[in-house]
């Protein structure tokens, strides 16, 4: 098994209302990173994280699925959580193992009941998060209307870091408002964008949205605010650092756009997680038990291995299994009881 430093690991939860596209987005990520050799579909019953017979039959996530991939030499552990009320408690139980959260919002329906409930779960664990407005390829989808719904539910600090190129069936790409670059995608392709000039009909909107993002990042940061007043803008490298700081402090929630079904915007979501979400050492220390004694241990590569079991799964063929988070090396593993007894 390849070894990763904790700084190169991201434990990411995907939450949102049922059918907002969490499993489909994870499937697109698996294809983009080579975990699967084709784009798998929920309707076809062949996704990596919805493997249970009931999940395949119902076409919904019943229990949190875990998968891992590598992107830009970083290890991503993905938690694909349920979105329907009947199974939502499993989502809350699983987020204890996450360091950052993507909240998926349907581009047609906007914020729904379980969107707000899973948001409150992330609040409870004090997790940094970003919103992905998904399904922008669908008829009657609207990034602007969905964004209005998001800001109505979660406040003005939900600010776009991307704008869509095209709408509904003509949604083909994104404009990155941080770097002011545009990318177009091949529908049902590998999820990797090709850089293009910002389309002329989006130049004014992109400039205005960029300025709004700069203002929001500068709020609450005296140094950036001073730079903003002096120059009227913030240099890209300072904007990147300021945005990351605002996300980690939960002062700001970035809003991205995608079509998970057609694998549009997938690499941008992966890049965002690597650039802005924290690694596990961000938690500092964790509390646990050593026998009957309470202990506290720092999450560092140099510390002794600590194992935290956050989920158990009953398998009819191999018996009870654990999904395990190893705190010191920050790896998500699946092991059997026999494995643990053998250690």
Question: Number of DSSP strands?
Answer: 16
Low-pLDDT windows of residues:
none
User: Span from first to last CA?
Assistant: 17 Å
Question: What is the helix/strand order?
Answer: EHHEEHEHEHEEEEEHHHEHEEEEEH
SSE map:
Elements: E1 9-16, H1 22-32, H2 53-58, E2 65-71, E3 74-80, H3 88-94, E4 100-106, H4 113-124, E5 129-134, H5 143-154, E6 158-160, E7 162-165, E8 173-176, E9 181-184, E10 194-196, H6 203-218, H7 222-231, H8 236-248, E11 253-257, H9 266-276, E12 285-290, E13 293-298, E14 307-315, E15 319-326, E16 331-336, H10 337-342
Parallel strand pairs: 1-3, 1-4, 4-5, 5-11, 6-11
Antiparallel strand pairs: 2-3, 7-8, 8-9, 9-10, 12-13, 14-15, 15-16
What do these coordinates show?
The chain has 10 helices and 16 strands. The chain has helices spanning 22-32, 53-58, 88-94, 113-124, 143-154, 203-218, 222-231, 236-248, 266-276, 337-342, and strands spanning 9-16, 65-71, 74-80, 100-106, 129-134, 158-160, 162-165, 173-176, 181-184, 194-196, 253-257, 285-290, 293-298, 307-315, 319-326, 331-336. The protein starts with 8 loop residues before the first strand and ends with a helix. The mean pLDDT is 91. The protein has 2 domains: 6-282, P-loop containing nucleotide triphosphate hydrolases (Rossmann fold, 3-Layer(aba) Sandwich), CATH 3.40.50; 285-342, no CATH class. The chain is globular and about 60 Å long. The strands form 4 sheets. It has a 7-stranded mixed β-sheet with strand order 2-3-1-4-5-11-6, sandwiched between helices. Strands 7-8-9-10 form a 4-stranded antiparallel β-sheet, with no helix packed on it. Strands 14-15-16 form a 3-stranded antiparallel β-sheet. It is α/β, with parallel strands linked by helices. Helix 6 crosses helix 7 (222-231). The longest helix is centred in the middle third of the chain and has 16 residues, at 203-218.
